[in-house]
Each structure stands twice: as C-alpha cells, then as structure tokens.
C-alpha cells in the first residue's frame, strides 16, 4: 500500500478467509499483511507461514525459536494492505472503506516504530548502477535494507541482459564440460603414462583410481575459493568517498543484498563466470602437471556448479525441516537479513569456523 493512501479496514472473518497458497494474509497487532508473494521465499517453508494465516504474528516475530531481525520487519511492511477492525461489524467496515477510498497525504512513519521505515534514497524508475555511488556514507546502511523489488542496473538493454541469467543455464553450460573433462582425465590416467616428477631420477606414477581423489581435492579447493570471494571481494567495504568502488561493489554483490529474491540474479551468468573459471584453470596449470591440474580443475568446476545451484535453492527452495539444506537456508537468510559481516559459507559453513565468521546462535 502506498504511504499516501489511507488504510483499508478488514474484519477478523475476512482476514481468516485468506489462508490458502493463492491468498495468504497474516496480522501483526491490528496491521494486516498479504504475504502471498512471500510464501515461496519464506525461510521456514510455505507450510509454516500458511499454518499461521489469519493469526497475529507478534509473539512469533519475537521468538523463540527465532527472533526476527529489524530487516525482517521492514520486509514484512512491503506487504501491508490495511488495518483490522475488531469492534465494528461488516457494515461499519464497509462504511469506513468508502470514507477512506480517497487518497490522503499522511506521514508514513506515524504510528510505527522506527525500524519499520524503509528508506528509499534512489529513484527505482531509473537504472541504479549510476545512482548508488552518490549515496556515499549512506550506501552501506541502504544496501543492507533488503526489498522485494526487481533491480534494473543499466539503461542499455544489452548491458542489462548481460547481468541476468536463468538458473538452468549454469548446468546446461558447465556440466557437459565437467563430464567431458572427467572422462578425458580418467582415460588419460588409465593409460599409465602420467607421473609426478620429484627429481630427475625419481617419479611417482598416478593410476586411474586416483582421479576421484583429485576431483574431490578440486571440489574442496573450490569451497575455500567460494568463501574467499564472498568474504573479501563481494563483502569488501568500499570507502564512503569513492563513487567508483561503491558502484563496483553494488554491481558485484550489493544488488543481491538489496534485492535478495531477484531470481534473474541469483546465479552467475556463464559469460562472467568464465573469467573466474579461466583464472582458476590457469593457476592450476601453472602449478601442477597437465592431467593432474585438469583433474583438480574439473572437481573445482563441479563444486562451482553445485554452489550456484545450492545458492538458488537456498533462496527459492523449501528444504525439509531438520535437513542439511534447511539449516543452510536458515544460515544464509540470517546472513542476508541480520549478519552481513559473517556467515560467508554457502555450500558449507566449514570455512567460517577457522576464520571466526560463524553466525552466533540466538539467545533468548
């Protein structure tokens, strides 16, 4: 609902009727929210929020089991549609609706706690890439207040399209390469000609059954690269005075934190990903014998594909409660909404432990 319009009024019976996946409403005190569009995104799963349809979420928002962050409360405000009228009957509610049908100017912060205010410091009708650098010292706070809006980065259609991709292009492009290189490395090792030269007189043969070990080493190496890129590149803190570094940060990752459910930007476009893939391949070829380096590389590439698919699933999937992916989803949502300076692991939380960036457990 626009801040410039007066609220609609609903009876408790009307709110209770909206309890399906096609129309799901909830309450926070006397405030009514239509969270239908949020069902698929809800970290706890669609069934959990539907079980509370038509009910007051005040106690649930405070926890336990989970105390919702100020960002989560701001997010909920995007689905506000009106007010609950407990005392009036249906006829009186209808009269109130007719009286408030004409838009009126009002203070959007009146009657709300401060954390419910969403600051819009940019013009969403225009490309954001050239605006965010002007936010300066306000950028960090703004980019970490997520919204449910699609982002347009560039006015040029070709540049804009280059920053988007559908999730299925990742396996379509990269899995054939993974399968081919895996077969190539295994058959090459099976010939028995691959050796590691330790000295001019001594070398160690590498048999074909070592390939799975090399593949898993590459996969494990990718999890470390994944952590480092996410923490030290995507979450660099650009200087408040530097327009270009702020813009670069927003293009790399800031746009994802501002609009975490923009489905067109949850995985890397293959063209951009090929730069990182190419650097990874060249680094390995410089340090290891050819077949061994390719074996490690293909494991890392496989790890990357799994990383992108898991990342998409953590935003849009509904994993079974108590499963590993369910815990990963809860962990990643906390990273987006509350702990942006920790919780950098996506496919695993392993590297958060030695680097001391584990998201702390909640205390009540």
Automatic annotation (TrEMBL):
SMART domains: Cyt-b5. Pathway: Lipid metabolism; fatty acid metabolism; Sphingolipid metabolism; galactosylceramide biosynthesis. It is a multi-pass membrane protein. Signal peptide: none annotated. Binds 2 Zn(2+) ions per subunit that likely form a catalytic dimetal center. Pfam families: Cyt-b5 (PF00173), FA_hydroxylase (PF04116). The chain crosses the membrane at residues 167-189, 209-229, 266-284, 296-314. GO terms for biological process: ceramide biosynthetic process; fatty acid biosynthetic process. It catalyses: hexadecanoate + 2 Fe(II)-[cytochrome b5] + O2 + 2 H(+) = (R)-2-hydroxyhexadecanoate + 2 Fe(III)-[cytochrome b5] + H2O; a 1,2-saturated fatty acid + 2 Fe(II)-[cytochrome b5] + O2 + 2 H(+) = a (R)-2-hydroxy fatty acid + 2 Fe(III)-[cytochrome b5] + H2O; docosanoate + 2 Fe(II)-[cytochrome b5] + O2 + 2 H(+) = 2-hydroxydocosanoate + 2 Fe(III)-[cytochrome b5] + H2O; tetracosanoate + 2 Fe(II)-[cytochrome b5] + O2 + 2 H(+) = (R)-2-hydroxytetracosanoate + 2 Fe(III)-[cytochrome b5] + H2O. InterPro entries: Cyt_B5-like_heme/steroid-bd (IPR001199), Cyt_B5-like_heme/steroid_sf (IPR036400), Cyt_B5_heme-BS (IPR018506), Fatty_acid_hydroxylase (IPR006694), Scs7 (IPR014430). Zn(2+) binds at residues 230, 235, 253, 256-257, 311, 315, 332, 335-336. Keywords: Endoplasmic reticulum, Fatty acid biosynthesis, Fatty acid metabolism, Heme, Iron, Lipid biosynthesis, Lipid metabolism, Membrane, Metal-binding, Microsome, Oxidoreductase, Transmembrane, Transmembrane helix, Zinc. GO terms for cellular component: endoplasmic reticulum membrane. Its EC number is 1.-.-.-. Its cofactor is Fe cation; Zn(2+). It is found in: Endoplasmic reticulum membrane; Microsome membrane. One of its GO terms (molecular function) is iron ion binding. Residues 7-85 form the Cytochrome b5 heme-binding domain. Heme binds at residues 42, 68. Plays an essential role in the synthesis of galactosphingolipids of the myelin sheath. Responsible for the synthesis of sphingolipids and glycosphingolipids involved in the formation of epidermal lamellar bodies critical for skin permeability barrier. Belongs to the sterol desaturase family. SCS7 subfamily. This is Fatty acid 2-hydroxylase. The lineage of its organism: Eukaryota, Metazoa, Chordata, Craniata, Vertebrata.
